[in-house]
Design brief:
Number of domains: 2
Strand order of the largest sheet: 3-4-5-6
Number of helices: 2
Largest sheet: 4 strands, antiparallel
Strand content: 15-25%
Structural class: alpha+beta
Amino acid sequence: MLLKIAVAVLLAAVLVLIIISLLNKNRSENNKSDEPFRKENSYRNCPLCGTPLLRGETVHSHLFPGKPDGMMYIYGCPFCHREHPRFKGGRDVQRICPFCKGKIPEKGWVIARVFEKPEKTHVHVLGCTVCRKGK
């Protein structure tokens, strides 16, 4: 009888240790950044902040079509544009203009020319609201 009790206590202690180690593992995994995962599984980067984007994550922009080329305002991705429909927040990322390399203000955007080609669409950045002011 005493042996059965000792075995039961030992099994209970082992189960408690396993549960505690699993809980600690989950906590440490939740605290880690998802940046390595993003870099491995991304298919493109945000043109303003450089954050790797996964499939389904989009850059918020407005297209003004025209012939032979259109104009586009690029506002940013869910990590850098606060008014993005799926803003994720929490990250302090800098939005940098690809043309002048200056910081884009929170309410600013990038202006680009869009060339529609049969095989693909080409976007050429002209500048941001800071460096194109008055043009």
